[in-house]
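pinging the channel bc i need a second pair of eyes. not urgent but kinda urgent?? the chain im working w is below, pasted from the shared doc
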Amino acid sequence: MNPKFRYLYIAIGGVLLILLIVQVIVTYPEVNAQNVLLNALPALLFFYLAYKTYHEKKDSELM
């Protein structure tokens, strides 16, 4: 994956996570677990993409 998109993925994932927290705070007495899960999946996807773009080669350190 292209590492130049790492910060974009982290920013989008962070914004989606903040929106998820705001949604839970606004609908606190009647929080629907299905809606929370459906809104958390895109944030998790973008954090996973950011994780996959992080690439550190340790093979060169061993030689």
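so The chain has a mean pLDDT of 88. and Residues 3-54 form one domain. — does that match what u expected or am i reading it wrong
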